[in-house]
């Protein structure tokens, strides 16, 4: 009898838990729904474009003769290098300058120092608002870049950034994105945060041709290995 | 008498603590199984009070009812007929009858002033 009641209790409890799951109500209004729809459409478009380009590449691989296969491979390599930040890039963008606040305003306070957190936040914000390529003091910022303090000296991939002013070059996708990025950065939170640390973040007007150098060091990859090439060609 | 209640509480606490959830599509079966279990449980209590309680009948009835109810619901889903309603109806009616009998027995006992009877389960 006890065993049976134990089972009954257990079943009731499980049923309770199953039913208890709250129903998440959709409380978005028309405008939010429309925005979501637009976002999804954009994503769809992007995916379709990607599929198309990949399909085109696939066709190229399949149709061309062996000589031009090397060409296609080279092209792909070039593209990938570009994506990884191993090539020099020129494009529309803005330049940010981090400088110290005027000594008159400081009133005896110490001039500010750039910390890794400030810089990381700034980079995050830039990425959020449409930056494609970033270089800090002409050091290319890539996916594996680390910004941190080593012995109290701010370093980016080992290059010291302890001298003010620091110049940050940013390239956006096109002119209008650069303009947008400029407008965002003018009112960004980062500027306030820099000012709290007695630093000034100057955002310069968008320019047509900003050149960002290639990543100068070897990219170290720990967790990736080349795929097994013996079984290639399935797809 | 207290051991089954203790078992019920332990089962409840155990079920609530383990945070097990049944997938949405099987929730129906579980609800019917719970209903069948409750029906059997109250039937057992009634039989106990009427002194015709048989452990074997109770245990087999418990599992058989649960399996029958669940399979009826399953069959209903596949036939497109809401057969689980039949189970709900049958168990619901039985549940009410059993509880009514239990109530009347308890009332009778309290009227004859012999509510305390030591019984083993």
Automatic annotation (TrEMBL), chain B:
Main site of residence?
membrane
Keywords recorded for this protein, A-Z: Cell membrane, Membrane, Transmembrane, Transmembrane helix
Q: Where are the transmembrane segments?
A: 28-45, 57-77, 83-102
The protein's matches in Pfam families, at most eight in alphabetical order, are given as:
DUF1290
Instruction: Enumerate the subcellular locations listed in this protein's record, separating them with semicolons.
Output: Cell membrane
Q: How does it sit in the membrane?
A: Multi-pass membrane protein
Query: Which named protein is this?
Result: Small basic family protein
């Amino acid at each position: 009898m006890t065993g049976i009641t134990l089972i009954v209790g257990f079943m009731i409890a499980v049923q309770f838990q199953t039913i208890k799951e709250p129903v998440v109500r959709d409380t978005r209004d028309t405008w939010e729904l429309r925005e979501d729809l637009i976002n999804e459409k954009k994503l769809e478009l992007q995916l379709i474009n990607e599929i198309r380009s990949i399909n085109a590449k696939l066709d190229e691989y399949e149709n061309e003769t062996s000589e031009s296969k090397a060409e296609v491979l080279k092209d792909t390599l070039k593209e990938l290098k570009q994506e990884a930040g191993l090539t020099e890039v020129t494009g529309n963008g803005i330049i940010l300058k981090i400088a110290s606040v005027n000594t008159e305003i400081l009133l005896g306070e110490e001039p500010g120092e750039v910390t890794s957190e400030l810089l990381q936040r700034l980079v995050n914000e830039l990425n959020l608002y449409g930056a494609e390529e970033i270089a800090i003091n002409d050091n290319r910022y890539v996916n594996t870049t680390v910004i941190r303090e080593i012995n109290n000296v701010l370093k980016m991939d080992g290059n010291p950034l302890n001298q003010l002013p620091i110049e940050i070059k940013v390239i956006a996708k096109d002119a209008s994105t650069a303009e947008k990025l400029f407008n965002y950065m003018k009112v960004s939170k980062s500027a306030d945060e820099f000012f709290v640390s007695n630093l000034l973040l100057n955002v310069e007007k968008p320019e047509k041709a900003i050149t960002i150098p290639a990543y100068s060091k070897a990219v170290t990859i720990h967790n990736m290995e080349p795929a097994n090439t013996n079984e290639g060609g399935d797809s | 008498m207290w051991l089954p209640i203790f078992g019920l509480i332990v089962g409840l606490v155990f079920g609530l603590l383990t945070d097990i959830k049944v997938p949405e599509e099987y929730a129906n079966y579980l609800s019917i199984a719970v209903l069948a279990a409750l029906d059997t449980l109250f039937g057992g209590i009634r039989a106990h009070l009427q002194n015709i309680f048989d452990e074997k009948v109770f245990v087999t009835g418990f599992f058989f009812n649960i399996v029958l109810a669940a399979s009826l619901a399953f069959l209903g889903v596949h036939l497109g007929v809401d057969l689980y309603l039949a189970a709900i109806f049958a168990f619901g009616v039985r549940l009410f009858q059993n509880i009514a009998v239990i109530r009347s027995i308890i009332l009778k006992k309290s009227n004859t002033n012999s509510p305390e009877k030591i019984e083993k389960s």
